[in-house]
Amino acid sequence: MSEYLKNNKPQFPERSYGLRVLDYLRTGHPFIETYAFFFCILYITCAMIFISLAWNIDCIIYGIILKPLLSNDTDKNKDKPRKQRENSKSFKTIIKEWLIISIFYTKPLMGNPYFSTSPRDLWSNQWHQTFNQTFQELGYLPVKNYFKRNKTLGRALGICAAFLISGVLHDYIAIVSFNHFSIDFTIFFLLHGILLVLWEAVEGDILGRGKDFKD
């Protein structure tokens, strides 16, 4: 195995991701090398484990911090009138509420991507949620609100805009990290946005099972 990895080091492809996919559809030539595919699977698995562990560790730390705050508040406030307790919202109370919301009411950063039931489930619930809200605020919502007269078109283009921003961000990270310019990530995520729109259209409009671009 080690000999194979040494003799098959990954190389940056000369053609972009989109063109390699087209070549695969026309000629059957693989658009990704075996070693690169193995590296991608390994990277995704490590990212899933790291993000999941980081989130669980954060929740444990939040719980340790929260425990004394709850016991102190109970002892100090049990003799105060109810109105006074409601009006006196201290900094400690704000911290306590923030910790409770973070532990019990916040989505985990990573779900179970390999058990996704649809492209929407993958990107909205199962894959990591670090930038999910940011992409919605910068891409999806402005484009959707611009096409107020045609809500279906606005939602479809909004989804593509969110994925486009995600692709540009990933390409920027690749440039900074590896000093290699390409639009592979932009094309990759844009194709996934188009796939999501088509999936929702087929499942919702044709099969009657989807939720028709639900926000």
From TrEMBL:
Q: Which organism does this sequence originate in?
A: Racocetra fulgida
A molecular function annotated in GO for this UniProt entry is:
O-acyltransferase activity
Q: Which domain of life is it from?
A: Eukaryota
Q: Which family does the similarity line name? A: Belongs to the wax synthase family.
Q: List the GO cellular component terms.
A: membrane
Q: Which UniProt keywords apply?
A: Membrane, Transferase, Transmembrane, Transmembrane helix
GO biological process entries: lipid metabolic process
Span-the-membrane segments of this chain are: 35-57, 156-175, 181-202
Pathway(s) annotated for this protein in UniProt: Secondary metabolite biosynthesis
Q: Which InterPro entries does this one have?
A: Wax_synthase (IPR044851), Wax_synthase_dom (IPR032805)
Q: Does the keyword Membrane apply?
A: yes
The entry's protein name is: 8943_t:CDS:1
Q: Which Pfam families match?
A: MBOAT_2
